[in-house]
Amino acid sequence: MPAADHVPDSSGPAAADGLLVAPFRGLRYVPARVSDLAAVTSPPYDVIDPDDATHLEQLDLHNVVRLILPRDPRGGAAGVGPGRYAHAAELLDGWRAEGVLRRDPRPALYVYEQSGPGVFQRGLLAAVGLHDPADRVVLPHEDVMPGPVADRLELMRATSANLEPILLVYDGGGDTAAVLDEVAAGPPTLETTAEDGLTQRVWAVEDPALHERVARDLAPRQALIADGHHRWATYRRLQAERHAAGQGAGPWDRGLAMLVDSRTSPLRVAAIHRVVADLDLDTALADASETFTVGPAGDDLESALAVLADTAAAHPFVVTDGATYRLLADPDPAAVAAALPAERPARWRSLDASVLHLLLLERLWQVSDDDRRVGYLHDSGSAVRAARRAHGVAVLMRPVAVSDVLALAAAGERMPRKSTSFGPKPRTGLVLRILDD
Hints:
Elements: E1 21-22, E2 27-29, H1 50-59, H2 65-68, H3 84-98, E3 101-103, E4 109-116, E5 119-129, E6 138-139, H4 146-159, E7 161-162, E8 166-170, H5 175-184, E9 190-193, E10 199-205, H6 208-218, E11 223-227, H7 229-244, E12 254-261, E13 268-270, E14 273-276, H8 281-288, E15 293-296, H9 301-310, E16 317-320, E17 325-329, H10 333-339, H11 346-349, H12 352-364, E18 374-377, H13 380-389, E19 393-396, H14 402-410, E20 421-423, E21 433-434
Parallel strand pairs: 6-11, 8-12
Antiparallel strand pairs: 1-5, 2-3, 4-5, 4-10, 5-12, 7-21, 8-11, 9-10, 13-20, 14-18, 14-19, 15-17, 16-17, 16-19
Helix pairs in contact: 3-4, 4-7
């Protein structure tokens, strides 16, 4: 992020124990027991569409996608069924027993670097102490949906593991940055290049003196949840369950996270697109036309995205069924004002996502944002394919400004669900965390 977009109040008020960053004994693949480290890793669960999942499963029998998006062996071709969580736990236990996954012998912090053409990000994998948002230590910026939280909670209960990290960003420039530079000057513990062309390097840091330097530097800071709001909510749900069961303090009081310094590794933000199943394009456009201006958006996805990026119109969206592309823009200001709650800040009411959910989806198409017909896709091509499969439409969006995200988080405001996609995202499968450390 540029200097003007630093995470706000990074040394501001915090709970008594501040931002707790602790080492843990990572669970990692044994290179000699798999075809290739790149072949057993994956993107985060919520950016993988069904075609991607099938491809990843075919790369290696031990690809981590089988744990994070498990299929019920009795659930038919789609693998959908209540047994999928137990199946993930069985796979995890089996892979550990077979020596495919092995626990590191000593607690470590893990320096994690991703690099490639035009991309360089270096951060820290750690077990981060859980906080209530009111503590102003870990700042969410989006609302969550109950479905994904329930799904991740069932998986976390079954496996008793944090299978993939959330992504936190903080305003740093302190001693942690120096520690990361010192560690990365040496040979990595593991290195691989994923299918997306990004080289992944991890250094296991076991030195307690370095742990202390990091803990001391990060304790007074605040961190913004850049990616993983549902997993953070799941961490806190599991913690509450364990405490309610009388289990007291334990590893469930922390969650696996990658922490990135916004000064040394600025994140990028992309849009998350929507798919509405069982919605005819002509009907969708007719219902929107009295409020939005409807215009052409090219003949294919590439030209539609160019039209979306270049338009100066207010609140533009490309709506498509995969064959025809149309631009919706410049909604009637009176309709916008009527749909969006007046008590919310002007910055929140100006968000494309706010207009999309409260005006276009709810008022004009009569579909709530948590309706089972609504899907959320990070990749525009995946969104278009999903719309075709679902006999519906994809709504393609522009990314939100980073300054809006940070300003709303600092003010304690939550953006509509799935408003942002920060990246690059941590690769799943490089380091896992078992909840008995």
